[in-house]
Amino acid sequence: MTSLHATPSALDVYSQAAPWTNATPNRILKTAAVPVSLPYIGMTAWDANTARFSAVSPPDPTTGVQYFCIVLDDGGTPTGMRYDFSLNPVALSGHSGAAGVFETLADDCQLSAFNGWTYVIDPASGSHYFVCAASATSPTPSNGLYWLCLTENYKFFPPMMQVYQPTSGIEPQGVWSIGETVWFTKQDGSLWQVLLADVLTNKTTSLQQISSTGIVQGIVTDATAAPACYVLSAVASAGGYSLVEFQAGNPASAVTIETGFALGTIKTTPDGAVWKVVSDLNPNDLQQPKSEVALLVPSYPVNGRNPAWIDPFASADPSLYPAGLTQSIMDAIPLSATDILLLTTPNASSYALNDTGGSMVWQMTRVGIGVFDQPAVPLHSYSGDALAAYSQISQDLIKGGPTANDIRAQYSQMSAAQAGDYVTALATMTVPPTFSNKAAWSGVQNDLQNELNDLVSSASFWSAMSQVVVVQSQIESLAASYVANALVIPTTATLISSTARQVNALNIASVTAGGAGSVLTCLGGILAVTAPEGAAVLGLFSAAAAVVGLLCAFFRSRNTDYSISVSDPAYYISAKLGEVDNDLGKVFAATQDMIISYAAAATRDGGILATVGALYRNGTWTANPPDYKAGSNEVPSSFQAYRDGCVHSYLQAFVPLVTAINLIVVNNDQQWNTYKDKPVYVSPTHTWWNTMGDNYKGALLQYASDSDQSKPLGQDLDALLFTTLGYSYAEVFLQWNIPTTPSWISDE
């Protein structure tokens, strides 16, 4: 089944100065936070410089992989650690012994303090370079611009840092980079730029001063083909500093962002994001840290909007965060506009900054900013000639008379095909001869062209997602029927007379990656099953070991807590499976409502519309529903893994209710029960070893008639689980919480 994909314009008007709209592979639906570990070398405490001088690389032009560096200061010569975005230390080529570490040593001087770090990739050679502005204590106190190749291969000794000092007086106070251009400030506050090629060869060919003002704090770009750069600078004001921003070379255009600004708190990332990180590492004040993490929105003045700081976590669902996260941030390493590492103290009373235990990791929190929680980018508003142009264009598109003059009012109900028709009509539309302000008309036309192009892709995505959920629901029901038939027991089986047990088989809250409750989470298992091929996986980053919600259903159903009662498996098991199936049907129906809600919300925000559209076009968010006829037993190949996962979750939840096990460790003097003259069928014996060298022996116990223990009543589950489905003995016997005493004879 094919979905419409619009052709995007060269630059989406709603992505300008909004790097959080970038359609990167790690974009998720809703903001979420997960605990992560950042490994490091040595006995090093996190200090004020660790995150302050972090540097993030642009994507590698060949692999697309990004990296970042941080400072390790053990009281001697500061060293650096390099990581990829999966938080793995990355060794220098040929030097894997101390993975991730690189020395900040120069041939003839000792570096004592840093003034700035940046990470540059040479587009010609593909080599990676760490560049820093640093102070040296020998042979004489001075500042320099030092660089080191991080991808150079060496055998014995690590490479030494080289200095860029083609003329006297370089002495940089800060350093940044945009593409292959290195920016730095001198001690007199002047701003300079030079190409990386000249830095490496110690030349001045491209070295030039850029008109500036104040104390430069950061440089960002608008990321266009011919990028314009913007300077963030601190200017003296009323005994302190004000943070201003202006286009590079034009300080007269500066706009004020903040008064009472603290120097050294700006962090920029290669995607154009500007973060303010005010750390608080005071070990005596961890209950209420005075840290601050804020995102600049927009990243530079654009479309009449001046930048302002916002709380990037304000819209997040608290249930997706560790308790008290927003009150416990101590420091941060921004990796992009939507990806940030936080040093937090969830348990402030016991957190120790100087804890350098044997694990050699910093416990951190990684936050992904969700598309539907990202900063708002309002659709452009119009007045005067632009409003007149908008009304006329709307009338010409809708063709519904003079009162049908608001095309945007139809976005939430518009199909991808309708949006596509409007795109075609808009592309051929010309300025009426009677309309004098051609620039106003063209501006509105370009805006609507962007919006409708994105709407084609966005509407296609949500429509296809809705179809995927329908098929998902049908396949789940198919799996439920399969399991119900597998577990059905003739009513001649002995009835249980014990008190009915409450089985919390549907506790969504316990759905976590790598974990399971003592009672199996059936509904959670269904929703956490590997997503069907062609369905968007709205999880976090692979490095974060995040909870993975299947489509949108996870977010709607995560707080749902169903409870079912099973008293007589012989009579109720199929009925209860039907109830679970019915409850899941309600969840899938709620998912459809959520899809409609998200689709409508996307049409009211230019940034969300642009992001979803781009994510669908580039294949990050995919939804390709297969052709499937309801009621068919033929599962589409793209849903086979999902169907198998549903079956697995159902069996794991319900097999323990109708079976028991014999389980012993061989040579451990444990009793092996035969249940002679009892209505119990004992399956063939299975043996296996675990990784610790223990030899296990197990057998499955099922209902049998009083007169014949040679076969089970109903399907032989031993054959089903281990032969047909191929489940491992260790999983079923050790992880499925199957009782060791048959419940149907427990009261005899």
Description of the molecule:
- The chain has 748 residues and is an alpha+beta fold.
- Among the domains are: 24-165 and 343-351 and 360-365, no CATH class; 374-488, no CATH class; 495-610, no CATH class; 622-736, no CATH class.
- The strands form eight sheets. A four-stranded antiparallel sheet has the order 1-24-23-22, with no helix packed on it.
- The model is unreliable at 1-10, 323-327, 347-358 and 492-572 (pLDDT under 50).
- The chain crosses the membrane at residues 478-496, 508-529, 535-555.
- Keywords: Membrane, Transmembrane, Transmembrane helix.
Helix and strand arrangement:
Layout: E1 32-39, H1 48-52, E2 55-56, E3 67-72, E4 79-84, E5 101-103, E6 110-121, E7 128-138, E8 142-149, E9 162-164, E10 172-178, E11 181-186, E12 191-195, H2 196-201, E13 208-210, E14 215-221, E15 229-237, E16 240-247, E17 255-259, E18 266-268, E19 274-278, E20 292-297, E21 308-310, E22 329-336, E23 339-344, E24 361-368, H3 384-398, H4 416-427, H5 438-487, E25 501-507, H6 522-528, H7 553-557, E26 561-566, H8 569-602, H9 606-617, H10 640-658, E27 660-665, E28 680-682, E29 686-689, E30 695-703, H11 717-724, H12 729-735
Antiparallel strand pairs: 1-24, 2-3, 3-4, 4-5, 6-7, 7-8, 8-9, 10-11, 11-12, 12-13, 14-15, 15-16, 16-17, 18-19, 19-20, 20-21, 22-23, 23-24, 25-26, 27-30, 28-30, 29-30
Helix pairs in contact: 3-5, 4-5, 5-8, 5-9, 5-10, 6-10, 8-10
